[in-house]
Amino acid sequence: MTRVAVSPDLLGWAVERAGTPAEGLVGRFPKLEAWLRGEKQPTFKQLESFAKAVHAPIGFFFLAAPPEETVPIPDLRTVGSQGLSRPSPDLLDTIYTCQQRQDWYREHARTTGEGAVSFIGSARLTDPPEEVAERIRRVLAFSVEERNAMRSWSEARRRFIEQAESAGMMVMVSGVVGSNNRRKLDPGEFRGFALSDPLAPLVFINGADSKSAQMFTLAHEIAHLWLDQTALSDAGPRTLSTHETERWCNQVAAELLVPMTALLAEYRADESIGEQPQRLARAFKVSTLVILRRLFDANKLTRTAFWEAYDLEVQRLHEIAPSGSGGNFYNTTAARVGKRFASAIIGSTLEGRASFAEALRLLGFKKMSTFHDLGRVVGVER
After folding, report:
1. Beta strands 82-83 and 78-79: pairing type?
2. Residue ranges of the chain with per-residue pLDDT less than 50
């Protein structure tokens, strides 16, 4: 039986890269410890299985040394003033998948004569965040009054995504890599990213984050598109980034979701810090954390009071967070790939302009029945 001469350093690197302790893989690969010590070598079939288990391209194992992997788009995430270290395979695979979908949609738009969207690059960092937020609000028809009339922030979030897609963006919301429910994304690593393009602008939101937090992330990534900027972001109402662009995008997002004039009109000086955020969150259909940040921006909270209230609210939200269920498979799938993208590729495939193999690969399916069922969900049928 042919063995593959793989460097133990490469095997150890792959284990570390995957974030899975070696002992957790021993059940599937009983000789892993011997491989890591260089005492034994795997067969090619075993190496293929191992590569799949640790989410690494098999070609990596034939290199002379572990590769230096970097995020393939500008990475604006920071801890303090330092950039973050090695990206996880889950983050990398998610970005690569979205780039492939964007490439396909760009060619689709060119072929069908779909025009470029006008908002890409329409803002500059020197523009006041309040003015840019108002311009975004007009393009998306994203009004405080409409949100106030909605029953929940979940409904407001769905509507926000619909408005963004109607304006010409692809919005993909997923908490897993592709359609693999065993590869869950970590909101602690990233909350979202934007891939700017005049024909195929794309926003990805980490669906493993809370739904209320996803509202802020979407608003933040939309601000990046207005700058014509592709970026992996440090979005969040608590984030006080040292990066100028991130601070600006956070300001635009906050103003878009909770306009300062509307906030001050609703503010009650005699209301407690425990009651006011929840009342205002219901009115604006955003997270109480966003409201706390806006109260801080409005100088209604000191920095110390803001941090204390924010930490207490994070703890409260964590304690009451629902465990959640899988939901409707096709609605979840439509959200993961984005209805705009799904409608385009399914329609193009049914019209014979794209192959079924390509569509299944980009949608992350294996069964034709799933393809047709999703088509019905997004309104594209034979």
Report:
1. antiparallel
2. 81
